Amino acid sequence: MSPPETLFLETTAKIHKDSMHSFMDFQVWDLPGQLDFLDPAFDIDSIFGEIGAFIWVIDAQDDYHEAIGRLNKTIIILQQSYPSIYIEIFIHKVDGLSEDFKLDVYRDVEQRINDELADCGFENPPLNYHLTSIYDHSIFEAFSKVIQRLIPQLPTLEALLNNLCANSQIERAYLFDVLSKIYIASDTSPSDISSYEICSDYIDVIVDASEIYGWDRPAKAKKISADDEGGENGHDESDDDGDEVGLEDSESVILLANQGKPLYLREINRYLALICVFKSEQTWKKRGLVDYNVSVFQDALSQVFDSNMR
Question: pTM surpassing 0.85?
Answer without folding.
Answer: no
